[in-house]
Automatic annotation (TrEMBL):
GO molecular function annotations of the record: CoA-transferase activity
UniProt xrefs under InterPro entries: CoA-transferase_III_domain, CoA-Trfase_fam_III, CoA-Trfase_III_dom3_sf, CoA-Trfase_III_dom_1_sf
Extent of the signal sequence: none
Protein name: CoA transferase
Amino acid sequence: VNKSDAILESFQPGYLDSLNIGFETLAKINPQLVHTSMTPFGSTGPYAGFISTDLITSSMGGMPFVSGDEDRPPVRISFPQAELVAGSQAFGATVAALRHSRNSKTGQHVDVSEQIAVMWTLMNATPFPQLHGTDVTRAGAFRKRGPIDARHVFRCADGYVSMNAQAKTLDGFIRWMSEEIEIEKEILGFNIDKWNLKPDSDPNGKEASEFKKVEKAIESFLSIKTKMEIFERALSAGLLVAPCNTVEDIRKSPQLEARSFWIDVYHPEFGKDITHL
């Protein structure tokens, strides 16, 4: 403890105190010590002692509520996002506490809650009740924009791509379309910066109809392009479009290949090499 700058742990709240090696005890030995605790619900409060899993803390943080299709139950991301996000926030908070410790000669207890860590990932949703008087809801392949559901996943020639069609880069995408196909003047003149669609706008009004026409043109244009064609143009022109990769796409990624992400390991029980991370 005397030689340590920080301790990071994920025991249940109170466990280290029961062993007489909690923060208060260790701080007497090393006043500059930073003690970071990562727990499902934090070290205090009525839920502090609850046992949890990533599914529970993700749900309590609100992530599944905005994940999935509107007409189906909420879904979770299969990878343990709550734990990973909490870990990254614990890292950042620990570094900040270490800087404070070196400047003030005083350590502190960094209390990281997985539930709150998940809430910090929902900055696209949490302001809505205060700003617009409504909640962001699940929209699947779409995204709520005022009264309309704007498409975010588009079919292309060999799969799907994800595109933010309401971003400022839409102008660049319209320019790309105009280079290769003839498009209507109304679409060519569409300016996303001047598009003023509000939560209470008419879903069949002028602003909504204009965007739906642009979206239809994008849908038609992307349907004849491959994922790689779209991605290469996105990279060169700074467009917010990316392929929805399959496992096979990831396996063939030139970026991962260049970084030797995949290696072949011989398995005697199979009598051949098997590709691993």
